[in-house]
Amino acid sequence: MKKTSLPHDNVSEAGIVASLLSNPDMIMHSETLKPEYFFNKEYASIYWSIGELYKKGIDKIDDFNLTTQLHSSKGMANIFKDKNDGYIPELIETLGYIKRDTVEEYQHLCDIVSIHAFKRAVYKNIKKFEQRALDVDDVDLNKLNFDLSNSIDNLVIKHTSSNEMPLYADILDSVLETIAERRNGDGTYGIPSKFKGLNSFLSYEIGELIL
Q1: 12, 109 in Cβ contact below 8 A?
Q2: How crowded is residue 59: how many other Cβ atoms within 10 Å of its Cβ?
Q3: What's the confidence (pLDDT) of residue 109?
Q4: Strand partners, 191
Q5: Which residue has the higher pLDDT, 205 or 74?
Q6: Cβ proximity of 21 and 91 under 8 Å
Q7: Is 21 exposed, middle or buried, given 0-12, 13-18 or 19+ CB atoms closer than 10 A?
Q8: Mind listing the pLDDT tens digit for each residue in 104-159?
Q9: Contact 96/18 with Cβ under 8 angstroms?
Q10: Taking the model in full, what pTM does it have?
């Protein structure tokens, strides 16, 4: 029987990693893209490493920082255990030719990878329930129905999200306007407590106080 080739796009995965190696700030536009969405384990581990470095405030992604971060995780390090010392530097140099320079291009690649990850998850889920459907001993219809519905819901929740992240400068005016609209005439916010000593520390918001 011919082995099924699960949907994936190595070029898009490589493009994401290449873009981040050149401009790590782009990872702020792909917070919903998880390392496990990558089909290529090497690209997944590099994507994870760049994310971890960025969280630490390290935005210089060179072979030393990348290799150090990879070796901080046994699972990630094992992916490269059979590679020679020059593999990471050579990979970084090679990927430099396919980097994307705009957020729109980068997000397009992220969308492609996310879609393929969702398709693979759907396929694996169907195969799992295909086996259960053929199991003559699995006769609990209610449980089967619950498990199937629950698994589909979980897939949708996990994979359906938006990569769009507004910049702080773009929403600042709106946030300040909302705050100003909620201010009381005396300059306070919310509903004051009848316990006057508490008012220096907190006030109630609409929906928080139920009488």
Answers
A1: yes
A2: 13
A3: 94
A4: 204
A5: 74
A6: no
A7: buried
A8: 999 999 999 999 999 999 898 888 888 888 887 876 788 888 888 888 878 777 77
A9: yes
A10: 0.68
